[in-house]
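Throughout our pipeline, every protein is held as a single compact record rather than as scattered files. Nothing more is needed to write down the fold, since each code stands for a local backbone conformation. The record that follows is passed on verbatim for readers who wish to inspect the format.
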Amino acid sequence: MISLIKKKGANPQTKEVIYFLQWTRVSTVTETQLAKSMARGSTFSVGEINGVFSDFPQSIIDELLNGNAVKIDGLGTFKLKVSGKSQKEKKDVTSAGAKISVVFEPATELNSRLNDEKEFRFVEVPTAEGQQDADEGGDTPAPSGDDTPGGDTPGGDTPGGGGGDDEDGDVI
């Protein structure tokens, strides 16, 4: 079941108060928990599945470093993205200062299955003393993008799309 909060924000262009949906994490599943779940429906042991999980990141890194994208059917594709300083002349473009990052593009079927099988529940956000909850929150800017509350674009620029917490698991 997908947990959502109703978040109050402000339209960046008009400053008008709007409300939008935001996903919130219930918990984080570890590799071992996932391996146990997968082992229940297969002939592989938890240890064998954990072994695959252990080797998986390095295998992806090796393939990306060899210039390959890595496609996992039903999940998505890992690719490299390169960014660097633009130059006016082609001869001045160098790899000095280039930044490499990994981009994950979810498979269409992954998003389709999530949308086809979705079941939502609304949760209250725990608040620190003296702060208002997400429904009653202050003038939090809405995610950048159009002024359409909710949206259907996961991870896009429409308010309500994409993730709902930072890397520490805190609702943002």
